[in-house]
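Priority: medium. Attachment 1 of 2:
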């Protein structure tokens, strides 16, 4: 559970400069930067006491949408030695019409979850995330960089992208763990490079906080010797996101995702999806909320996210207007993996819950409470940006 100790939203700068002519009313100034800093405090049986901070900065400029530059950073430690640090950049029109996106990160997990493969993995698991049978130690520094553009003009809905990602994964299984017993592909760890490519048909009215339209996406990733990878495999991701305005304040949002992996797939990729917005699952704050992170894993993953978003009111924080919203959601997900029991096609894992959204222009803070209807266990999440 992540708990915000302090929430700071600072707006600096102005789009206008100089002094007004004598006798004229000064033109209202438009802030040129939004910055959010959020100290984090956490405690759970998984990672112990956690502390650190996460922040985002959005720089605006005329003609640049949804912003000119965005920088995000996080520094996070836990008392048992886990770490999660990253630095991310996004320049929507940095190189002419091309968008440059990049992320540098380091993760260290003394207890990274692994329950085996398939939609019915670890039937004896009872919710103790400290159980060494369902954990292993992992270190994984890495980075990715991506170029995205609109080949038919800035207002055309078609986008395409290419990129490259690389990660070095260190795997240390516990002797009694499921991982040590099953010894799947990838237990040796090592380098994993991917070539990335994809296309989107984007008709949203706003990228950061959409109210109408949608996004259809097809993405590919390929890993092999030529990409400086120890493993040779490929992945395809299909995604659909839709936004339907039911009233001036009420919105229905829907996401459907299907991810398929083929070849010599390392086990630590079983939980990853491709695309512009990478997700983990099945289980966790980016796929099925309320279910333990990466609870179900396999070569094929599918999940659905349905949200009712209501803009409750407008607030003024530090003299700047902000929107306060509430959300109700239903998440469903399942996996398929060869050679293990997966159950019938209709056996999906649900999570339900609600949350709060605090937003200003491109900056959105998300706080969610979720519950698994299968087990009754609950989870809390806090992060930046809508889930989709």
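Attachment 2 of 2:
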């Amino acid at each position: 559970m992540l708990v915000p100790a302090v929430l700071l939203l600072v707006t600096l700068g102005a789009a206008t400069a100089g002094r007004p002519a004598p006798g004229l009313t000064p033109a209202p100034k438009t802030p040129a930067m939004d910055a959010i800093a959020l100290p984090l405090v956490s405690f759970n049986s998984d990672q112990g006491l956690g502390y650190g901070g996460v922040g985002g900065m959005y720089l605006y400029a005329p003609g640049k949408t949804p912003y000119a530059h965005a920088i995000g950073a996080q520094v996070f430690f836990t008392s048992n030695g886990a770490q999660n640090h990253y630095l991310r950049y996004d320049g929507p029109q940095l190189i002419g019409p091309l968008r440059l996106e990049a992320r540098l990160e380091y993760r260290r997990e003394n207890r990274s979850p692994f329950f085996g493969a398939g939609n019915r993995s670890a039937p004896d698991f009872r919710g103790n995330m400290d159980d060494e049978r369902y954990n292993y130690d992992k270190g994984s520094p890495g980075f990715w960089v991506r170029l995205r553009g609109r080949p038919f003009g800035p207002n055309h809905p078609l986008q395409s992208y290419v990129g490259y990602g690389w990660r070095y994964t260190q795997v240390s299984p516990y002797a009694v763990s499921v991982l040590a017993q099953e010894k799947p592909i990838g237990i040796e760890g090592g380098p994993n490079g991917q070539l990335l490519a994809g296309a989107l048909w984007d008709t949203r009215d706003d990228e950061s906080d959409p109210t109408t339209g949608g996004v259809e996406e097809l993405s590919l990733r390929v890993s092999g010797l030529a990409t400086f990878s120890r493993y040779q495999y490929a992945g395809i991701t299909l995604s659909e996101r839709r936004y339907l305005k039911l009233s001036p304040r009420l919105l229905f949002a829907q996401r459907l995702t299907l991810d398929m992996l083929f070849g010599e797939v390392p086990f630590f990729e079983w939980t990853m999806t491709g695309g512009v917005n990478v997700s983990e699952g099945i289980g966790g704050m980016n796929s099925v909320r309320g279910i333990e992170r990466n609870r179900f894993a396999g070569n094929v993953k599918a999940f659905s996210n349905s949200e009712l978003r209501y803009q409750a009111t407008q607030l003024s924080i530090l003299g700047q207007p902000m929107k306060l919203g509430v959300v109700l959601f239903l998440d469903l997900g399942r996996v398929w993996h060869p050679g293990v029991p997966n159950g019938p096609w209709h056996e999906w894992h649900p999570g339900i819950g609600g949350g709060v959204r605090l937003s200003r222009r491109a900056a959105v803070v998300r706080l969610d409470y979720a519950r698994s209807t299968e087990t009754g266990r609950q989870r809390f999440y806090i992060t930046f940006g809508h889930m989709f």
